[in-house]
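Need residues for this backbone.
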């Protein structure tokens, strides 16, 4: 991973956003196997738990069995067939999620050698907002940022101006028990 280029700009912006909203005293459940950014979080004082490589579309057991107060998913949701089910199974009330945004005429990314390195979703910002809303989360803060590349061409030029990543901090209100509705008394 990142053999050819290390995404320093993306990691720096994501870390600053994380520090802005999450205390190092909180335990983070980071969706995905240990990676360079989970290492950066640990080096900055965060306690991080990662998934073990299970197929998260079919198995959300770790989301229910681990103890955590913050859920993070950095560039993971685009790989899932059903991120809605994952968010439904998050048992904490704070989430930080980032996605690479859909780029103009670009079709979904598909690695020819790694079956896990494929994008099922190419998100637009409104789609992630809707996904969070449908699973009971309210967006508290968000950021979009560019990702210029050192190449020549029309699309590389557009990358200087067009946001490539969308980063969101959202909270879910505590679930409150439903009040029972009493049937009206007869004869009244």
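Answer:
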């Amino acid at each position: 991973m990142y053999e050819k280029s290390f995404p320093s700009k993306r990691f720096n912006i994501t870390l600053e956003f994380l520090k802005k909203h999450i205390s190092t005293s909180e335990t983070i459940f980071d969706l995905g196997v240990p990676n360079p950014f989970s290492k950066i979080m640990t080096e900055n004082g965060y306690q991080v738990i990662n998934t073990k490589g299970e197929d998260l579309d079919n198995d959300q057991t770790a989301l229910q069995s681990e103890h955590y107060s913050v859920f993070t998913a950095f560039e993971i949701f685009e790989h899932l067939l059903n991120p809605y089910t994952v968010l439904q199974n998050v048992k904490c009330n704070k989430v930080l999620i980032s996605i690479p945004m859909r780029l103009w005429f670009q079709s979904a990314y598909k690695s020819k050698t790694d079956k896990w390195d494929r994008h099922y979703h190419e998100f637009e910002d409104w789609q992630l907002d809707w996904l969070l809303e449908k699973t009971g989360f309210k967006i508290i803060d968000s950021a979009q940022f560019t990702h210029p590349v050192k190449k020549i061409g029309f699309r590389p030029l557009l990358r200087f101006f067009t946001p490539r990543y969308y980063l969101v901090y959202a909270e879910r209100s505590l679930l409150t028990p439903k009040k029972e509705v009493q049937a009206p008394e007869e004869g009244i």
